[in-house]
């Protein structure tokens, strides 16, 4: 029964995460409510997201929705940023990291109403000083704390007039980069409950693939409202965890 429940959790989280980021809104709280220890829950989420994000990216890449040059630029920038963020996090308190998350997500939410980016463009993502700095910062945030990093990436791609399906593919690369190192760490420290993690992974792969199919058919006018809704939920969840 537990195996089936975790498949459903993985499906729901990765379906939402593929469309707009923020899949952790579903997976982490549900696993904790189910009674999984916090480190095991985070580890399961990181391992499952590493695999599901890679498989969903490969589908989009195979269909030429994203170029190898774009993917590598995002991968390397997020990996380096995540490594730096992990180092910084070791010197910061949990409360400080939570406050940073609240500020960043609130800023992204407010500026989403001011920017004209809405995924209607067809531009390729170009790594320059501005976009590289922002992406590096998101990678750092992912390494320091994490929740909402995929959503923050989607806001960046929208501002660069990148088509929605391309943005989905690139955000999956960023999620893979952010989760890979963490997944290795959790595996090496023996925090993984493998039976439930594999169930989460199976559900995640299916959810990500269904998410891609929906993303292809999704009217872009609904994407920004979805992003804003996910962002608000993330902010509320993080504030609640802060005051607990």
TrEMBL record:
Which Pfam family, just one, is annotated for this protein? TauE
Keyword terms of this UniProt record: Cell membrane, Membrane, Transmembrane, Transmembrane helix, Transport
The answer to whether keyword Transport applies is: yes
Q: What is its main location?
A: membrane
Q: Does the keyword Manganese apply?
A: no
Q: Which InterPro entries match?
A: TM_pro_TauE-like, TSUP
Q: Where, per UniProt, does this protein localize?
A: Cell membrane
Membrane topology (UniProt): Multi-pass membrane protein
Q: Where are the transmembrane segments?
A: 72-91, 97-114, 163-186, 192-214, 226-243
The family annotation for this protein states: Belongs to the 4-toluene sulfonate uptake permease (TSUP) (TC 2.A.102) family.
- The protein's name is Probable membrane transporter protein
